[in-house]
Amino acid sequence: MILTQDQQNIRDAVLKLCSRFPDEYWLERDRDGVFPHEFHQAMAADGWLGIAMPEHVGGAGLGITEAAIMMEAVAESGGGMAAASSIHGPVFSLQPIALFGTPEQQQRMIPPVLSGEHRICFAVTEPNTGLDTTKLKTRAQKRDGGYLVNGEKIWISVAQVANKMMLLARTTPLEEVKRKTDGLSLFFTDLDRAKIEVRLIHKMGRHAVDSNMLFISDLWIPEEDRIGAEGDGFKTIMHGFNPERILIGSEAIGLGRVAIARAARYARERIVFDRPIGMNQGIQHPLAKCWAQVEAANLMVMKAAALFDAGQECGVEANAGKYLAAEAGFEACHTALSTLGGMGYAQEYHIERYLREVLIPRTAPVSAHMILNFLAEKVLGLPKSY
Ligand SMILES: Cc1cc2nc3c(=O)[nH]c(=O)nc-3n(C[C@H](O)[C@H](O)[C@H](O)COP(=O)(O)OP(=O)(O)OC[C@H]3O[C@@H](n4cnc5c(N)ncnc54)[C@H](O)[C@@H]3O)c2cc1C
Known about the structure:
Blueprint: H1 5-18, H2 23-32, H3 37-45, H4 64-92, H5 95-100, H6 103-114, E1 120-123, E2 139-143, E3 146-157, E4 164-170, E5 184-190, E6 196-200, E7 211-222, E8 226-227, H7 233-238, H8 241-269, E9 271-272, E10 275-276, H9 281-309, H10 315-339, H11 351-363, H12 368-378
Parallel strand pairs: 1-4
Antiparallel strand pairs: 2-3, 3-7, 4-5, 5-8, 6-7, 9-10
The structure holds flavin-adenine dinucleotide (FAD).
Flavin-adenine dinucleotide is lined by residues 122-125, 130-131, 155-157, 203, 211, 360, 363-367, 369-370, 373, 386.
């Protein structure tokens, strides 16, 4: 895809900022599991968290295309999913507030997140319902002036350091609604640790950005923290599904690109049998194929972003782009690992970290299976299979 001069400037500026956070910084954060506060603050200070937010709430008023270009650069810098996930929430998950929040909510909720003062997490997934989101069991029961919330969430990223959360909960029992998508409500509220136990999940990679179980007991949410109408939460949150797939796809593209670049550099420099290993076609061809796959996936991701920014339907492209980017990114990281031979497995070459991290876009926020289900139904006209 051809970037405009403004888009190229965004890419260059983001890469320049990211160069202050070298490989060693990300390796250390992966080892100690500490949230990359310095990186998050640096991106906030330069205004990047609000790239796709409207100007009246302190954003830059640009599109998802520009946000995708930024996230690609963040991951491609070597920060990978750790860097991207540390800012992913502010960049994408405030969209429901920007679209459906009252002017008071927009002013109260958005600027402190963009400035880096507030950290947010996004609590949707539940242990007993998984991808079948409309069956989620967390209940928000109406009381005078607000809601009393009880339930469990799983895989909630950033909850160890967040002070705010976007929460999807059921306000009307499933048995009492016409459509299963009705009766869910969206809240943006305090992550009150007196009422929410946050339990870390020990996971495979992206150790700098935590993922957690949340056990919510009698959490009070005031009415003014509900986003949109009661019962409309699923529709509200759906507006963010496509941008999220686009951004996650971009992050996978960034990881694929950095893995290929690192592997090609190693292949130029590593001498075995008196010549660079990169002189062997068995090394060249898999890397060249990965490059072609990553760049082709990027075109689909960017097509989805362009459609979204033009206000057009982009569900098929956003899902296909996320799927292709995750697969191409994974293949690139895996191929890079074998290019480096034994050193691919050593932490100091960073590829093993990329490989562990690129598995995240393959699963979250939606699995490859569910994307293929969706494409089969929407593009091929096949019967819905789930
Ligand atoms: C590192 C990480 C960070 C995350 N961060 C967040 C976060 O911040 N907030 C949040 O809310 N969630 C988060 N998630 C959760 C993520 O979105 C879910 O893991 C994902 O949606 C899959 O849900 P599940 O794990 O419950 O899988 P399940 O729903 O249990 O599915 C298990 C497997 O079965 C397959 N499957 C199920 N039904 C079908 C079907 N009908 N057809 C074909 N295959 C099917 C799925 O594709 C999957 O492979 C995160 C996950 C990870 C790993």
